[in-house]
Each structure stands twice: as structure tokens, then as C-alpha cells.
Write a structure and sequence with these properties.
Number of helices: 12
Helix content: 55-70%
Shape: globular
Structural class: mainly alpha
Largest sheet: none
Strand content: under 5%
Radius of gyration: 20 Å
Number of domains: 3
Oligomer: single chain
Length: 245
């Protein structure tokens, strides 16, 4: 069924047992690190691994309930008022990079850590940690980002452009929430541009399901297909072959 927001389930999972003492400790640690970052901006990278770990624990343990909040996203709005993307990036680093890699990431910075997490998420236990950490140390940030993109896509980074358009203040929360929801479903390492593309592709596909333009539907489905991991792409193609025969 097409629709990134089709998340209704008849049997929602039970919430975890709330650990108030641990919640007080972890929330205090997050505030301590954020305050430290504001005081020492020049040294901000040295604690990003720890911050990502605590943020993951807040989400898993629902520690945001200590502050009478409704959801984890509301908790991030308070701690990261400028942009919640950084929080999701730090969490992705903690979730996908092996421990031996996280110990050395302070040498290369959290922005390169985001790129390393993309590779680790794809390769899992086959992630060549030593090789990519060496490249991260040696290469400038933008060059390393292009190297990772080339590795993931098998091609040089495609041309890009920045598009400007006006949004009213009342529209911004809806758009931000939609992009962040797509990032949670597609993977927090995805750029906001990719997330917006998938939201638009989803809309086009849904709009052309019944008596619409089949070419537009095909275009949208092709874009969805490209975001599938290699194994799922192969399984999808095999399924089509079986139905065709």
C-alpha cells in the first residue's frame, strides 16, 4: 500500500516500563552536554558520541515522559530548537557504527561520522571500519562526503541545485514534521532533499493510482525502487518475473 504515513496498527506495542531514576540521570546528562557545547563551541565534536547514545536511550525508554511531554519529537524540539536533524544524525552514528569506530570518531568530527554511519548501515558486519576511518582522517570533509556517495551509489555525485520558495510561518511546522517523519522511515542518514522527494513521489503515485497518468505512476514507483536495499530490489524483481511467467 502506497503511503509513507500509513502507520496504523491494530496491536500497538506496549510502552516500556518507566524508569524514573534513570530518566532523571539521562536527561540531566543531555542538558549538561548541550550546555557544555554552547560554552565551548570550538570543542563540540569531543562529546557527540556520548550525546547520541543518551538520545537513543531517551527514545527507547520514553524518558521524555519525565517532563510531561507527549512524544520524543516534542522533547527534541526543546533541546534542538534550531534543527532536530543534528540529533537524528548523532543517534544514527550511535546506532550503526561499531563501538571501536565510535571511540575514534572524535578525531574526525561528527559530520564525517554521519558519512561513516551511512556505510556501516549498508554493510553491517562487513563494514571496513579501519579503511574508512583512515580516509576520514586524511580527506577534507567535502571530498570525503563525495567519496562515500560514490561508494554508495556506484557513481559520482549527481549535479545539484538549491531551490528557494516562500513558506508562511503557519506552513513550516507541517512541512518540518512531514520531512522528519520521512527521515525516521527512510533512515535518519537521508538528506532532507531525499525525504522531500519521497514525500512528493508518494503523493504523485497515490494521485495516479485510479484513472491517472500511468507514466507519472511509473516514474514515482521507479524512485521508490531506487531507495530499496540491494536484496529487496532483487526480491522485488524476482516477484515480478514470477507473476509475468
Amino acid at each position: 500500500m502506497i503511503g509513507l504515513t500509513s502507520l496504523i496498527t491494530k496491536n500497538p506495542p506496549m510502552p516500556p516500563k518507566f524508569n524514573r531514576r534513570r530518566a532523571v540521570f539521562v536527561l540531566g546528562k543531555i542538558d549538561e552536554i548541550l550546555a557544555w557545547e554552547q560554552r565551548k563551541e570550538a570543542e563540540r565534536d569531543t562529546k557527540f558520541v556520548e550525546l547520541g547514545r543518551y538520545l537513543c536511550e531517551v527514545r527507547a525508554g520514553q524518558y521524555w515522559r519525565l517532563e510531561n511531554l507527549q512524544c520524543f519529537d516534542e522533547f527534541l524540539e526543546r533541546r534542538f530548537p534550531g534543527s532536530r536533524r543534528k540529533a537524528y544524525y548523532l543517534m544514527s552514528i550511535h546506532e550503526h557504527l561499531p563501538q571501536e569506530a565510535r571511540k575514534q570518531l572524535k578525531e574526525v568530527g561528527w559530520t564525517k561520522g554521519i558519512e561513516l554511519a551511512k556505510l556501516a548501515r549498508r554493510d553491517r558486519q562487513h563494514f571496513d571500519c579501519a579503511t574508512w576511518l583512515h580516509k576520514a582522517r586524511q580527506m577534507p570533509k567535502e571530498a570525503f562526503k563525495k567519496e562515500v556517495e560514490k561508494e554508495l551509489t556506484g557513481r559520482e555525485t549527481e549535479p545539484w541545485e538549491i531551490i528557494y520558495f516562500k513558506l508562511y510561518q503557519s506552513q513550516t511546522p507541517v512541512i518540518e514534521r512531514a520531512i522528519e517523519t520521512a527521515a525516521l522511515m527512510l533512515g535518519s542518514d537521508r538528506s532532507r532533499g531525499y525525504c522531500l522527494e519521497m514525500i512528493c513521489a508518494d503523493f504523485l503515485a497515490g494521485a495516479n493510482l485510479d484513472h491517472g497518468n500511468p507514466e507519472t505512476l511509473l516514474f514515482s514507483m521507479t524512485r521508490f525502487f531506487k531507495f530499496l536495499p540491494g536484496e529487496q530490489q532483487q526480491a522485488f524483481l524476482e516477484g515480478l518475473s514470477e507473476k509475468a511467467s
